[in-house]
Amino acid sequence: MKDFNKIRSLVGDSLKEDELQYVDCYVNDNLGLFIPSFGQCGYAARKSHTHPSYMIIIVFSNEELLVERKIELKPKHYFATITSPDIPHNDIDEDFNHYYCTMIDREYFEKQYRLYSENVPCFEQHQFSLCSDILKTLNTFALEYSKGMKNSDITLGAQTTLITHWIIRSILGENLDMRSVSSNYTVGRVQQYIEQHFDENITVKKLAQIAYMSESSLNRLFKKETSFTPIEYLIQTRIAKSKILLKRKDVPITEISQRCGFGSNAHFTSCFKRLVNISPSEYRDAYKE
Protein backbone atom coordinates (compact mmCIF):
# COMPACT_ATOMS: atom_id res chain seq x y z
CA MET A 1 0.00 0.00 0.00
CA LYS A 2 1.29 3.46 -0.92
CA ASP A 3 2.76 5.39 2.06
CA PHE A 4 1.68 2.67 4.49
CA ASN A 5 4.31 3.71 7.05
CA LYS A 6 2.91 7.25 7.09
CA ILE A 7 -0.58 5.83 7.51
CA ARG A 8 0.52 3.64 10.44
CA SER A 9 2.19 6.62 12.14
CA LEU A 10 -1.22 8.32 12.21
CA VAL A 11 -3.58 5.37 12.72
CA GLY A 12 -1.51 3.04 14.90
CA ASP A 13 1.55 0.76 14.76
CA SER A 14 -0.58 -2.39 14.90
CA LEU A 15 -2.56 -1.45 11.78
CA LYS A 16 -2.67 -4.12 9.08
CA GLU A 17 -3.05 -3.41 5.40
CA ASP A 18 -6.15 -5.56 4.97
CA GLU A 19 -7.95 -3.45 7.59
CA LEU A 20 -7.95 -0.62 5.05
CA GLN A 21 -9.20 -2.62 2.07
CA TYR A 22 -12.47 -0.67 2.02
CA VAL A 23 -10.95 2.74 2.82
CA ASP A 24 -9.53 5.39 0.48
CA CYS A 25 -6.38 6.87 2.05
CA TYR A 26 -4.70 10.21 1.34
CA VAL A 27 -1.72 11.23 3.51
CA ASN A 28 1.25 13.48 3.94
CA ASP A 29 3.67 13.74 6.88
CA ASN A 30 1.24 15.47 9.26
CA LEU A 31 -2.29 14.74 8.05
CA GLY A 32 -4.25 11.80 6.73
CA LEU A 33 -7.71 11.73 5.15
CA PHE A 34 -9.52 8.38 5.33
CA ILE A 35 -12.84 7.83 3.53
CA PRO A 36 -14.72 4.54 3.90
CA SER A 37 -15.82 3.62 0.37
CA PHE A 38 -17.21 0.07 0.20
CA GLY A 39 -17.30 -0.94 3.86
CA GLN A 40 -16.11 -0.28 7.38
CA CYS A 41 -12.47 0.29 8.35
CA GLY A 42 -11.17 -2.82 10.11
CA TYR A 43 -9.11 -0.82 12.57
CA ALA A 44 -12.09 1.41 13.41
CA ALA A 45 -14.10 -1.73 14.19
CA ARG A 46 -11.75 -2.62 17.04
CA LYS A 47 -13.32 -2.12 20.46
CA SER A 48 -11.80 0.67 22.59
CA HIS A 49 -8.94 1.30 20.18
CA THR A 50 -6.60 4.32 20.25
CA HIS A 51 -4.61 6.43 17.78
CA PRO A 52 -1.28 8.24 18.21
CA SER A 53 -2.78 11.26 16.42
CA TYR A 54 -5.77 13.56 16.79
CA MET A 55 -8.82 12.08 15.07
CA ILE A 56 -11.57 14.25 13.61
CA ILE A 57 -14.71 12.56 12.28
CA ILE A 58 -16.86 14.70 9.96
CA VAL A 59 -20.36 13.36 9.26
CA PHE A 60 -22.17 14.22 6.01
CA SER A 61 -25.39 12.21 6.23
CA ASN A 62 -28.42 11.15 8.23
CA GLU A 63 -29.96 14.51 9.13
CA GLU A 64 -32.96 12.74 10.65
CA LEU A 65 -30.70 11.03 13.16
CA LEU A 66 -29.09 14.35 14.09
CA VAL A 67 -32.54 15.76 14.83
CA GLU A 68 -33.47 12.64 16.81
CA ARG A 69 -30.36 13.02 18.95
CA LYS A 70 -31.04 16.74 19.42
CA ILE A 71 -27.81 17.76 17.69
CA GLU A 72 -28.36 21.29 16.34
CA LEU A 73 -26.29 22.63 13.47
CA LYS A 74 -26.21 25.89 11.56
CA PRO A 75 -27.38 25.68 7.93
CA LYS A 76 -24.66 24.22 5.69
CA HIS A 77 -22.64 22.93 8.63
CA TYR A 78 -21.48 19.40 9.38
CA PHE A 79 -21.46 17.50 12.66
CA ALA A 80 -17.92 16.65 13.79
CA THR A 81 -16.12 15.07 16.74
CA ILE A 82 -12.47 15.20 17.82
CA THR A 83 -10.64 12.65 19.97
CA SER A 84 -7.17 13.18 21.46
CA PRO A 85 -4.30 10.71 21.00
CA ASP A 86 -4.21 7.59 23.19
CA ILE A 87 -7.85 8.00 24.30
CA PRO A 88 -9.66 4.62 24.05
CA HIS A 89 -12.86 4.96 22.05
CA ASN A 90 -15.29 3.24 19.75
CA ASP A 91 -15.65 4.99 16.43
CA ILE A 92 -18.83 6.71 15.32
CA ASP A 93 -21.70 4.23 15.22
CA GLU A 94 -23.04 2.56 12.10
CA ASP A 95 -26.10 4.84 12.00
CA PHE A 96 -23.77 7.58 10.70
CA ASN A 97 -22.79 5.83 7.48
CA HIS A 98 -21.12 8.56 5.45
CA TYR A 99 -18.17 10.40 6.97
CA TYR A 100 -14.60 11.57 6.48
CA CYS A 101 -11.95 10.72 9.07
CA THR A 102 -9.08 13.19 9.33
CA MET A 103 -6.05 12.37 11.47
CA ILE A 104 -3.48 15.01 12.38
CA ASP A 105 -0.04 14.32 13.82
CA ARG A 106 0.02 14.98 17.56
CA GLU A 107 3.07 17.26 17.68
CA TYR A 108 1.94 19.23 14.63
CA PHE A 109 -1.65 19.72 15.88
CA GLU A 110 -0.57 20.84 19.35
CA LYS A 111 1.97 23.27 17.92
CA GLN A 112 -0.77 24.90 15.80
CA TYR A 113 -3.31 24.86 18.66
CA ARG A 114 -0.89 26.72 20.97
CA LEU A 115 -1.01 29.63 18.55
CA TYR A 116 -4.56 30.14 19.89
CA SER A 117 -4.33 28.92 23.48
CA GLU A 118 -1.60 28.11 26.02
CA ASN A 119 -3.03 24.68 26.80
CA VAL A 120 -4.39 21.97 24.54
CA PRO A 121 -7.49 20.34 26.09
CA CYS A 122 -8.01 16.59 26.23
CA PHE A 123 -10.78 15.81 23.75
CA GLU A 124 -12.93 12.74 24.34
CA GLN A 125 -15.13 12.68 21.23
CA HIS A 126 -15.79 16.40 21.70
CA GLN A 127 -18.60 17.58 19.39
CA PHE A 128 -18.44 20.73 17.26
CA SER A 129 -19.74 22.02 13.92
CA LEU A 130 -17.82 22.66 10.69
CA CYS A 131 -18.86 24.81 7.77
CA SER A 132 -19.55 22.60 4.75
CA ASP A 133 -16.99 24.58 2.75
CA ILE A 134 -14.24 22.48 4.36
CA LEU A 135 -15.28 19.64 2.06
CA LYS A 136 -13.79 21.53 -0.88
CA THR A 137 -10.40 21.75 0.83
CA LEU A 138 -10.45 18.10 1.92
CA ASN A 139 -11.33 16.98 -1.60
CA THR A 140 -8.57 19.19 -3.01
CA PHE A 141 -6.14 17.49 -0.61
CA ALA A 142 -7.31 14.07 -1.82
CA LEU A 143 -7.05 15.06 -5.50
CA GLU A 144 -3.58 16.57 -5.06
CA TYR A 145 -2.35 13.40 -3.34
CA SER A 146 -3.89 11.13 -5.97
CA LYS A 147 -2.41 12.98 -8.96
CA GLY A 148 1.08 13.13 -7.44
CA MET A 149 2.08 16.22 -9.39
CA LYS A 150 5.52 17.80 -9.12
CA ASN A 151 6.00 19.61 -5.78
CA SER A 152 2.77 18.12 -4.42
CA ASP A 153 4.48 17.79 -1.02
CA ILE A 154 4.56 21.60 -0.85
CA THR A 155 0.91 22.08 -1.77
CA LEU A 156 -0.20 19.21 0.51
CA GLY A 157 1.71 20.87 3.35
CA ALA A 158 -0.07 24.17 2.69
CA GLN A 159 -3.46 22.44 2.61
CA THR A 160 -2.59 20.60 5.85
CA THR A 161 -2.00 23.94 7.56
CA LEU A 162 -5.26 25.37 6.24
CA ILE A 163 -7.31 22.30 7.25
CA THR A 164 -5.75 22.16 10.71
CA HIS A 165 -6.41 25.83 11.47
CA TRP A 166 -9.92 25.57 10.07
CA ILE A 167 -10.64 22.68 12.46
CA ILE A 168 -9.05 24.42 15.46
CA ARG A 169 -11.01 27.62 14.86
CA SER A 170 -14.21 25.62 14.56
CA ILE A 171 -13.49 23.84 17.85
CA LEU A 172 -13.07 27.28 19.44
CA GLY A 173 -16.35 28.46 17.95
CA GLU A 174 -14.91 30.54 15.10
CA ASN A 175 -16.26 28.79 11.99
CA LEU A 176 -14.79 29.88 8.68
CA ASP A 177 -17.59 30.27 6.14
CA MET A 178 -16.14 30.83 2.69
CA ARG A 179 -19.63 31.16 1.18
CA SER A 180 -19.93 34.56 2.88
CA VAL A 181 -16.63 35.82 1.42
CA SER A 182 -17.50 37.74 -1.73
CA SER A 183 -15.29 38.04 -4.79
CA ASN A 184 -17.13 41.26 -5.68
CA TYR A 185 -14.93 44.23 -4.78
CA THR A 186 -17.83 46.47 -3.73
CA VAL A 187 -19.37 43.85 -1.43
CA GLY A 188 -15.94 42.96 -0.06
CA ARG A 189 -15.33 46.62 0.77
CA VAL A 190 -18.62 46.79 2.70
CA GLN A 191 -17.79 43.54 4.53
CA GLN A 192 -14.42 44.93 5.53
CA TYR A 193 -16.01 48.12 6.84
CA ILE A 194 -18.50 46.11 8.91
CA GLU A 195 -15.73 43.95 10.37
CA GLN A 196 -13.76 47.04 11.40
CA HIS A 197 -16.68 49.20 12.64
CA PHE A 198 -19.18 46.64 13.97
CA ASP A 199 -19.29 48.45 17.34
CA GLU A 200 -20.50 51.69 15.76
CA ASN A 201 -23.97 52.82 14.68
CA ILE A 202 -24.01 51.42 11.14
CA THR A 203 -26.93 52.00 8.79
CA VAL A 204 -27.67 50.74 5.29
CA LYS A 205 -27.48 54.39 4.17
CA LYS A 206 -23.91 54.65 5.47
CA LEU A 207 -22.92 51.36 3.80
CA ALA A 208 -24.51 52.45 0.53
CA GLN A 209 -22.40 55.63 0.57
CA ILE A 210 -19.28 53.51 1.01
CA ALA A 211 -20.35 51.30 -1.90
CA TYR A 212 -21.27 54.31 -4.10
CA MET A 213 -24.72 52.92 -4.90
CA SER A 214 -28.31 53.19 -3.74
CA GLU A 215 -29.52 51.39 -0.63
CA SER A 216 -31.79 49.10 -2.67
CA SER A 217 -28.98 48.23 -5.09
CA LEU A 218 -26.62 47.44 -2.22
CA ASN A 219 -29.19 45.26 -0.49
CA ARG A 220 -29.83 43.36 -3.72
CA LEU A 221 -26.13 42.88 -4.62
CA PHE A 222 -25.05 42.02 -1.06
CA LYS A 223 -27.80 39.41 -0.73
CA LYS A 224 -26.89 37.89 -4.07
CA GLU A 225 -23.20 37.60 -3.16
CA THR A 226 -23.43 36.49 0.48
CA SER A 227 -27.01 35.21 0.98
CA PHE A 228 -27.45 37.91 3.67
CA THR A 229 -28.53 41.55 3.69
CA PRO A 230 -25.91 44.02 4.98
CA ILE A 231 -27.78 44.35 8.30
CA GLU A 232 -28.05 40.56 8.70
CA TYR A 233 -24.31 40.34 8.07
CA LEU A 234 -23.70 43.11 10.61
CA ILE A 235 -25.75 41.32 13.28
CA GLN A 236 -23.96 38.04 12.64
CA THR A 237 -20.60 39.80 12.93
CA ARG A 238 -21.61 41.40 16.23
CA ILE A 239 -22.81 38.05 17.60
CA ALA A 240 -19.54 36.36 16.57
CA LYS A 241 -17.55 39.08 18.37
CA SER A 242 -19.77 38.79 21.45
CA LYS A 243 -19.09 35.05 21.71
CA ILE A 244 -15.39 35.79 22.13
CA LEU A 245 -16.08 38.20 24.98
CA LEU A 246 -18.61 35.86 26.60
CA LYS A 247 -15.86 33.30 27.03
CA ARG A 248 -14.10 35.82 29.28
CA LYS A 249 -15.72 35.75 32.70
CA ASP A 250 -14.50 39.23 33.67
CA VAL A 251 -16.61 41.18 31.16
CA PRO A 252 -20.25 41.85 32.19
CA ILE A 253 -22.88 40.95 29.59
CA THR A 254 -24.20 44.53 29.58
CA GLU A 255 -20.75 45.79 28.66
CA ILE A 256 -20.43 43.12 25.94
CA SER A 257 -23.72 44.34 24.48
CA GLN A 258 -22.38 47.90 24.26
CA ARG A 259 -18.95 46.94 22.99
CA CYS A 260 -20.48 44.90 20.18
CA GLY A 261 -22.68 47.73 18.93
CA PHE A 262 -26.09 46.74 20.27
CA GLY A 263 -28.30 49.61 21.33
CA SER A 264 -29.60 47.78 24.38
CA ASN A 265 -29.08 44.60 26.34
CA ALA A 266 -32.59 43.48 25.35
CA HIS A 267 -31.75 43.82 21.64
CA PHE A 268 -28.49 41.92 22.16
CA THR A 269 -30.27 39.08 23.97
CA SER A 270 -33.00 38.92 21.34
CA CYS A 271 -30.52 38.70 18.44
CA PHE A 272 -28.33 36.20 20.28
CA LYS A 273 -31.26 33.88 21.02
CA ARG A 274 -32.44 34.07 17.42
CA LEU A 275 -29.05 33.11 15.97
CA VAL A 276 -27.61 30.84 18.68
CA ASN A 277 -30.83 29.42 20.15
CA ILE A 278 -29.73 30.20 23.74
CA SER A 279 -29.27 33.41 25.73
CA PRO A 280 -25.85 35.07 26.20
CA SER A 281 -25.78 34.00 29.87
CA GLU A 282 -26.64 30.41 28.93
CA TYR A 283 -23.87 30.46 26.32
CA ARG A 284 -21.38 31.68 28.93
CA ASP A 285 -22.45 28.99 31.40
CA ALA A 286 -22.30 26.26 28.75
CA TYR A 287 -18.79 27.32 27.71
CA LYS A 288 -17.70 27.21 31.35
CA GLU A 289 -19.02 23.67 31.68
Strand segment tally: 6
Distance between the termini: 44 Å
Strand residue content: 5-15%
Per DSSP, the total helix count is: 12
Question: Could you explain the architecture of this structure?
Answer:
This protein has 289 residues and is of the alpha+beta class. It contains twelve helices and six strands. The radius of gyration is 21 Å and the shape is globular. The mean pLDDT is 86.
Secondary-structure blueprint of this entry?
Elements: H1 4-11, E1 23-27, E2 31-36, E3 54-59, H2 63-68, E4 77-83, E5 99-104, H3 106-113, E6 126-131, H4 134-147, H5 152-171, H6 185-197, H7 204-211, H8 215-226, H9 230-246, H10 253-259, H11 265-276, H12 280-288
Helix pairs in contact: 4-5, 6-7, 6-9, 7-8
Record keyword descriptors for this entry:
alpha+beta, globular, 46% helix, six-stranded antiparallel sheet, 289 residues, 12% strand
Compact summary:
By secondary structure, this protein is α+β, with helices and mostly antiparallel strands. Helix content is 46%, strand content 12%.
